[in-house]
Amino acid sequence: MNTFYNEILTEHNMNPYHKNEIEGATFTLEGVNPSCGDDIVLQLKVEDGIITDGGYTGDGCAVSQASADMMLDLVIGKPKEEAMRLADIFIRMIKGTASDDEIDQLEEASSLRDISHMPARVKCAVLCWHTMEQMFDAKAPKESLIPKENKPEVCHL
Which of 36, 99, 111, 142 sees the fewest Cβ atoms within 10 Å? Predict the structure, then answer.
């Protein structure tokens, strides 16, 4: 395992920037990995089609928690479509099918590239990314990212 991976993983676990609840979250979705016990609740605040804030709560292994923190670093401030594109790249990176140019777009999240060689950790790394994909694919109205009611969508994976 490379030093860059260890440093980034340790930093995001010891000092997670986004591990907190988001007041006024537009979307909330729980992601659970029953095979290892990872459980996160992802919250995103979306305004005018842009992810303006995000956070997560829950428990899990170092990989799942760091991956969630890195994902939020990457997608906050971006349109939903860009966040979904980055999620696709991340998941393809873990599967070993993303190009180096694509992987570079993931910034710190690219440090999880070698997870693909650790089958027991793959589900941990992709949990938050799949949660965000399901949040937008299954729950977002087609005409708007913001639900018609002013309360967060809540469901379980």
Answer: 142
